[in-house]
């Protein structure tokens, strides 16, 4: 959240499946579901923040680890994910979000 407030350049990446992304995601984030997606959508030298649903979801932790092993240099893990984001009062986008 502080990175967004400061307008730091980084990619915010949801690492769940397409259905989950379409249902609810953090505004401005992109979906990466596999290594091919990561190679197409991300550069190894850019700062990347990965997230999933909440701190009980292991997908973002696993994705961050795999990205680092694949040569991505600046990968951060947003452990709280969607639950923490919406619980803090920040907006979500998606088909299940009521406006």
Output the keywords:
alpha/beta, 99 residues, 5 helices, 4-stranded parallel β-sheet
Name the strands of the widest sheet in spatial order.
2-1-3-4
Write down the CATH topology.
Answer: Oxidized Rhodanese, domain 1
Q: Any guess at the CATH architecture?
A: 3-Layer(aba) Sandwich
Structural class: alpha/beta
Helix coverage percent of residues?
25-40%
**Main β-sheet: number of strands, strand sense, barrel status?**
4 strands, parallel
CATH level 4 superfamily: Rhodanese-like domain
The top level CATH class name: Alpha Beta
How would you describe what is shown here?
Helices cover 36% and strands 15% of the residues. It has 99 residues and is an alpha/beta fold. It has a single domain, classed as Oxidized Rhodanese, domain 1. It has a four-stranded parallel sheet, covered by helices on one side. The radius of gyration is 13 Å and the shape is globular. It starts with a helix and ends in a 12-residue tail after the last helix.
Which helices and strands, and how do they pair?
Elements: H1 2-6, E1 11-14, H2 18-23, E2 30-31, H3 35-41, E3 47-51, H4 59-69, E4 74-77, H5 81-87
Parallel strand pairs: 1-2, 1-3, 3-4
Summarize the entry for a quick read.
Helix content is 36%, strand content 15%.
